[in-house]
Structures are given as C-alpha cells and as structure tokens.
Specification:
Shape: globular
Strand content: 5-15%
Distance between the termini: 41 Å
Largest sheet: 7 strands, mixed
C-alpha cells in the first residue's frame, strides 16, 4: 500500500508539472493533469513489477538458500506486491473483527481456511506492518519471480509428503513466534479446498496447532470467502472477505489437546462460512443454474 500511495502522489505531482510546463494557463487543458498522472502511475507500477521480476530472476540464478530468519525488506516487498496484485485483479478485501486482534507488537499464530492461492496474498496485504510470514507448500518456491521473493523473505516452505520436514517447519515457526520475530500464518486444511462448496471446509490437521502450543501464543482464527472466484470473475469487481471470528488466548487452550484446539477453530470458521453463504459468488452461481 505504501508503494501504491507514494506512486500515486508522485504521479499527481508529475501531472501538475506537466500541465504547468506545457498547457498553463489554458484552463481547457486542465484535464491533462489527471491523464498525465494516470499514465505516470501506470509507469511506476510497471517499473515496480519489472523490479520484482528482475530481482526474482537474479536471486534464482544465484540459487541462494531460504533465509534462516525472515527478512524485513523481503516481507515489505511481498506486502506491497500482494496489495497491488489483488487490486490489479479488481479484488476488494474487507476485513472485519480487527478489534479482536492482539496488540500490534504481540506475535501470534494465524489459521484460516484455504480456498485458493489468493488467500495469503490478501492476508499479507491486510496485515502489512505486523511482520507476518506464511507456511506454504514447497512448490510455491518455483513460481516465477514470486518464488524467489518467498525464499528471500524467509517464508516457511513445507513438503506435504515429508512428516519429519513438516515437524521441523512447525518447530521453526514456534521459535519465530516465541522469540518475537514475527507471526506465522498457516492453513490447517493442508491443501486448497478444490471441492468447494461440497464440503465447505476440509478437515483440519491438528498438528498445525503445535506451533501455537509451543510458542504459548494467541491463535487468530480467520474465515476467508471469495478468493476462489477472483481470477474467474476478472475484470469484474470481486469482494473478498476476511473475518476474524475468534482469538484464542493461550490461557484458554493451554489444557486442551491439539484435536480440541483444531475442532474449536474448525467449528468457528465453518459457522461463519455457513452464516454468510450469501456472500459466496460460487454458491450464487450454483443456485441460479438450478
């Protein structure tokens, strides 16, 4: 958002300079301020995308290992890029329950449902400035440009078929939270819900909550809607909903089993999705075809 705002302000300034340099004092050309500003803004965003791709390609060629600890600059760039990408595809995130969140400097474990690859892009942009990374599948490191930034920022890549490596990632996540380095987001379903809306929510893997138990931190529970419709609906407007449905404090769940914590969070998200079914574009489409 910062890069977008700075680009907008610079573009407006350059638009004013263009008008006063070439068309002032003719008031009939005042519209050139806004046209020039729009062109400059597009150029700035395009240059930022070129920077992302160039750095990503260079970093991949170097074949550097993932950062041992999250990199603040890398996290910042991913936050800004996520905001731009979501809005380029005409996505409009709505975040409710912000007042339930822990204090800004307190680290936490964030869990959510998993509808598409856009889930965490929206989360990253909404939680910009809170220093949060995500646990993602290792294949995401191969995505052009983005994969290199994921590695550079120090995101935690998990091999879904390697139990030992998965446990090491959970331990690493717990350490990052406990040390106050950053918060960590994870989707306990373990994979995208490709069969949505039947079922509306896949079973959770209780082991995903080990990081919270080990770090003794709050668990922020987020219900996500419509990210699976964003790409298909483009260029139409898409409302993306991120609802904080619960914040589970350590003192509340410290005596619970992992299965009990998992069931509580699963039920909270499922209740929200069922209550707000009218928001889903996919469900609306299904009803209309009956």
């Amino acid at each position: 958002m910062i890069i977008t705002l700075v680009s907008a302000l610079l573009s407006l300034g350059l638009g004013l300079i263009t008008y006063f340099s070439l068309y002032f004092p003719n008031p009939s050309w005042i519209w050139m301020i806004f046209l020039s500003a729009l062109i400059y803004f597009i150029v700035f965003i395009f240059l930022f995308i070129i920077f992302l791709a160039a750095f990503g390609s260079f970093y991949k060629i170097l074949n550097r290992p993932a950062k041992e600890n999250p990199n603040r600059f890398g996290m910042f760039i991913l936050e800004q890029a996520s905001f731009i990408l979501v809005h380029l595809f005409n996505g409009h995130p709505h975040f409710s329950g912000r007042g339930k969140l822990p204090p800004r400097k307190q680290r936490f474990c964030l869990v959510s449902n998993h509808l598409s690859g856009w889930d965490h892009l929206g989360l990253i942009s909404l939680f910009a400035g809170r220093r949060m990374i995500c646990v993602s599948k290792r294949q995401n490191e191969e995505i052009f440009a983005a994969g290199s930034w994921i590695r550079y920022a120090g995101y935690l890549s998990i091999d879904q078929h390697d139990i030992l490596q998965g446990q090491q990632v959970i331990d690493k996540a717990a350490s990052l939270i406990e040390n106050g380095t950053c918060s960590v987001a994870i989707a306990p379903e373990g994979t995208r819900n490709k069969s949505f809306p039947d079922p509306m929510l896949l079973p959770f893997h209780p082991g995903s909550f080990q990081m919270a138990v080990k770090a003794k931190c709050p668990i922020v529970v987020i219900a996500i809607q419509n990210t699976n419709a964003l790409f298909q609906r483009f260029p139409r407007w898409s409302n993306l909903y991120y609802d904080c449905v619960a914040v589970l404090e350590y003192d509340t769940y410290k005596d619970w089993s992992l299965s009990e914590i998992s069931a509580y969070c699963h039920n909270k998200i499922l209740e929200r999705l069922q209550k707000k079914q009218s928001r889903f574009y996919h469900l609306k489409k299904k009803e209309e075809t009956k």
